[in-house]
Task: structure prediction
Amino acid sequence: MARDGDINEPTREFPEYPTGDSRPVRGLLWVLGAAALVVVALLGVQAAGILPDFRNPFAQQQTDRSQPPLLKSIRDLSRYVAAEGNFQVVVDLQKDRRNVPDFLLNERTLFVGAGSVEAYVDFAKIADGAVVVSDDGKSVEIKLPAPQLGETNLDLEKSYVFAEERGLLNRLNDLVAGDPNRQQAVYKLAEDRITTAARDSGLTARAEENTRKMLEGLLRSLGYQKVTVTYTAP
Result:
């Protein structure tokens, strides 16, 4: 029985489905199916090139702000590269302080360096009278400067840092100041090791033999029957 002040609200009647009625489930499936068809249609239209490509607004991008190369010098070369050696060296370089724990102050780098060294004969240094032709024109003697080793070319595409250990203070210093040339000491040590290996590898001897064969084949094709190639002392 309603009291004074009570508001009689109309009674809402909700549809009652019998037990086992699947109409709500079917309606949901129809909605999901229609949404899936819309997505497939949009993807097909986009693949056809009708709609613009929707890109990731947070995609990574790369900007090259490098300055144009500056030509500093030009040098004429008269080298015959007779041999080349390819080397690989593992550098284990550590920098720490005595009586300081490694977890505080330590810098250790395990670097795998790959590089090449050329062995060449500088034809520009051939002295006057170094080429002597016999009176009958059938033999020739050539005296060449000794082969030299070129500069070590460290291939950064094939070189990499295998492992690196840094102490807590080293990491803090990187956050505060940083050192973009921190790996230069490792690169320099790798180049020195490769240069030493090239000197001990017999690369200059191979250059002597290859240069001699090249000149013998060239001069014999010009009609010389005997070709003698010697080298000055290095």
About this structure: The helical segments are 23-47, 168-176, 184-199, 203-221. The beta strands are 79-96, 106-122, 131-133, 139-144, 148-149, 153-154, 160-166, 226-231. Confidence is low (pLDDT under 50) at residues 1-7.
